[in-house]
Specification:
single chain; mainly alpha; 0% strand; globular
């Protein structure tokens, strides 16, 4: 589902909690700019999974970086991401 940032995060907390947390930790360990690139790519439907990011063209990454630079405030970034998500709800 488009609302889920980490779409491939699946499992049962009772049985797969360590694997699920490792997946979340992998995302959280990324540098902030890479997290924002992924958020933007995911919300704009360029990728489904974090592992898809290396497949993006350099020009697309440059465009994402321009958007990221244009929204330096985290609260404004969150508002923008929620606006994009709102298109799919």
């Amino acid at each position: 589902h488009m609302i889920n940032l980490l779409q491939d995060l699946e499992g049962s907390l009772d049985y797969e909690k360590p694997e699920m947390l490792a997946h979340i930790d992998k995302y959280l360990a990324l540098p902030e700019v890479e997290k924002k690139r992924f958020q933007l790519a995911r919300r704009l439907r360029y990728v489904n999974w974090l592992s898809d990011m290396p497949k993006l063209q350099a020009g697309t990454i440059s465009q994402f970086d321009e958007v990221i630079k244009s929204i330096p405030d985290q609260a404004d970034w969150d508002i923008k991401m929620n606006e994009i998500i709102g298109r799919y709800i």
